[in-house]
Specification:
Shape: globular
Largest sheet: 2 strands, antiparallel
Helix content: 55-70%
Length: 419
């Protein structure tokens, strides 16, 4: 995230766009803004995924440090708009059904490719733990024969994704691509991300074995990501299924997504849990050390939804009547408080990004004994909790039907979490 973008985001977070007491917008107009921002965010995600697909095509055609670096840069760029769409989870069933295909984590990477010996050889919970699809054209896993002679989109989506109903069998989406570009991060809570060599795709000078099949997997999984994003983008277009579902669920869907992402998912499962167990596996973009940005853009996505304003990849802005406006018409003080709370979350997230860009990656920040790094992340958690409490007040003020936000043991029952 460049410093200009970061500065602009912080500035935007400090000043609400249009909340004026006494001028409540029509609820349908608010829902339309929400849907328009969803469409724009997914369309940006689709376009950046297509750019990623082109960069991966160049890598496979001519593996080198240059083409691998370009593919990594394209992957990082693709995460920016996508993470901002996560505010649409939880409140929209269509998004919930879709999200697991493209952003599921954590993954047992031994399902996909070679791993370090420290990874282990078996798991009581997952018979596909060390299947290594890339190295094996036929798999015999727990007595099941799987034909993997051609690594196709169908094989990945219908046979391997969540194979044996194990959620850690993540064969598709951004994180499978991330692993294939970076490889395992074997640095623990020390500095350094994954370090896969470009020669892992060089059939003439192959490292890691099976370079042709690795290229086939990477090509197929990226094409599948594009297909999935085409589908979800269409769902938010005019007349799409997601818009129809939203019309039935109303404004409550917006607050369900905001509260659940804010509290149980981001503050709890993605940040607090890692702080409690100090485990580098508990980071969202664990191979690339990009977790700080993924969390930041989740927070920014919530602000987009609340204020009804989204800045697209090309710099244009999609905006309109928002739930901020609705709330301001009912209780101007509460609307200002929630606006300020979300701004504080954005600022805490920006501090996290600044620390990471200053040389201390997210997996180092959660390390045991790193008092300062831990506190930077705890500040994000604390800000999100405060934000969630204001969201709960907003739900009550607007008289919405009962909404239950997602929880997390790390926040609600920390004694259940092994330290």
């Amino acid at each position: 995230m460049n410093k200009l973008t970061l500065a602009a985001a912080i500035a935007a977070s400090l000043f609400s766009t249009s909340a004026i007491a006494g001028t409540a917008p029509d609820a349908k107009a608010v829902l339309n803004t929400y849907a328009n921002i969803a469409y724009a965010g997914y369309e940006d995600s689709l376009n950046t995924a297509k750019a990623l697909e082109a960069a991966i095509g160049a890598l496979v055609a001519k593996p080198s440090d240059v083409t691998l670096a370009a593919a990594k840069t394209a992957w990082l760029a693709a995460r920016v708009p996508y993470q901002q769409t996560e505010a649409y989870r939880f409140g929209n069933a269509i998004v919930d059904d879709f999200e697991g295909k493209v952003n599921a984590w954590p993954l047992d990477e031994g399902l996909i490719d070679y791993v370090d010996a420290s990874y282990g050889t078996e798991s009581d919970e997952n018979p596909f733990f060390n299947a290594n699809v890339i190295a094996n054209a036929k798999l015999n896993v727990a007595g099941k024969m799987v034909d993997a002679s051609n690594i196709t989109k169908t094989l990945l989506a219908e046979t391997l994704q969540e194979a044996d109903e194990v959620e850690a069998n993540v064969a598709t989406g951004y994180h499978a691509i991330e692993f294939l570009l970076w490889g395992q991060d074997l640095n623990g809570t020390d500095a350094g991300a994954g370090n896969r060599p470009a020669s892992d795709y060089d059939t003439a000078n192959c490292t890691g074995g099976n370079c042709d099949r690795r290229a086939q997997y990477l090509t197929s999984v990226t094409a599948l990501l594009v297909d999935d994003l085409v589908e979800i983008t269409a769902a938010w277009a005019e007349g799409g299924a997601a818009r129809a579902e939203l019309a039935d669920n109303g404004v409550a869907a917006i607050f369900t997504g905001l509260g659940s992402l804010s509290y149980g998912e981001l503050a709890g499962e993605r940040i607090k849990l890692g702080l409690m167990v100090h485990d580098p596996e508990e980071e969202h973009d664990c191979f690339s050390d990009n977790t700080h940005n993924s969390h930041y853009y989740d927070i920014l996505g919530m602000q987009n939804v609340y204020t009804g304003s989204y800045t697209r990849v090309d710099g244009s802005v999609v905006e309109g009547p928002s739930v901020e406006d609705l709330l301001a018409a009912k209780n101007a003080d509460l609307a200002k408080s929630l606006t300020a709370n979300i701004a504080a979350s954005v600022k805490a997230g920006a501090d996290m990004v600044a620390r990471a860009e200053g040389g201390e990656a997210y997996d180092q920040m959660i390390g045991e004994g790193n008092t300062e790094g831990n506190q930077v992340l705890q500040n994000v958690v604390d800000a999100l909790i405060v934000q969630t409490k204001s969201l709960e007040k907003a739900v009550a003020t607007l008289g919405l039907k009962a909404i239950e936000f997602e929880g997390s043991d790390s926040l609600d029952a920390p004694e259940k979490v092994a330290g």
